[in-house]
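Table S4 entry, Glucose-6-phosphate 1-dehydrogenase (EC).
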Amino acid sequence: MAELQSVCDVVIFGGHGDLAFRKLMPALYHLTDTGYLNSKSRIITVTRVEMTFEDHRKLVKEKLKEFLKENVFDEAKFKVFEKQLEVVVIEFDDNSSYEGLSKLLKQEPDRERINYLSTASDFFSTICTSLNEWNLISPKSRVVLEKPIGRDLESARLINKGVLQYFDESQIYRIDHYLGKDTVQNIMALRFSNRFFMPLWDANNIDHVQITVAENVGVEGRWGYYDEYGAMRDMIQNHLMQLLCLVAMEAPCSLDADSVRDEKVKVLRSLRKMTPRDIVEKTVRAQYTKGVSDGETVPNYTDGVPNSTTETFAALRVDIDNWRWNGVPFYLR
C-alpha cells in the first residue's frame, strides 16, 4: 500500500501533556494538511482526566492556535483535522480502564497502530502489559518511547526489558524529539557535505567546542515530573549527548539508522570517565530563581516545589579520547 494511502491509528498516551500539545499535535496537524497522514486515520488521545469529546476538541484547537507558528492555523483545515480526533480516559496503572480503548481500536482491527508513550517512563512497562492483556498488540503495532527512559542505567534496563516482553525490537522507537529540529538535522550535512569544513573538523584546528541549549520555556506546571528528573536527566543525558555525538562522530557508511547509531556509540565509548574530583571541578548544577524571560516575569523554581534541591541548570566539561578530538574540551550546558 502506498504511504499516503495507508490508514493508521495514532494513540497518544499522555495526550494532554505539554509535549503532546507543544510538539505532537502540531506535527500531526501538518502531516494531515500536507497529505502525509491519511485523513481517515485516527488520532486517539489517552488522558487520565475525565473529558467529553467536545471539550477535547476545543482544547486541541486552543493549543494548536497557541503553538503553531503565527498565521498557520486555519479554520477550514482544522475542520478536516478534527474529524480524526478521539479521546479515551484511562488510568495507566488500572488495567480495567483500558476497556474503552480496546473497543475503539477493535473497530479497525487490521490497521497499523502507533502507540506513542508521552508519559513518565515509570508507566512504559505497565501500559505495554495492559495493551497485551487486552490483545491490542499486533505485528503491525509500533511503540514510541519518549525520553528520558528511566532515572539511571538499572531502571532503563528494567523498562526496556518490560517493553521487549511484548514488542519486538524492530517495533520499538526510542524518541528524542530534539533531533527533529531543523538545525540539529543540518549538522550532518554541514559536517560531511561541506568541503570547507571537513578537513578542519579536528583537534588540529579546533580549540574547544561549546554546545548550549538555551530554552525560554520554563517548567510551566510540570513541577512533579521535573523535580524527579532535573536538568541533568531531562536535558544533558539525552538532548545534549545526542548533539555531542552528531558534532563529534565519524562519517557513517550510510544514513540508515543503524549506521548512524554505530558511529554515535563510538563517541560515547570514547568519553573519558569522570572521577569524583572531576565531578567537583568539571560540572555545575544550579537553580533558576525569579527573573524575566522574553520580557515576562518568571517564578522561582522553588515556588512550585518548596525546599527542592533539583537542578534546573546543568553544565559540564567532557573529553573525548580518540585521534580526532584528543585535547579538545567539549562544554555542554
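Residues 223-248 form the longest helix (26 residues).
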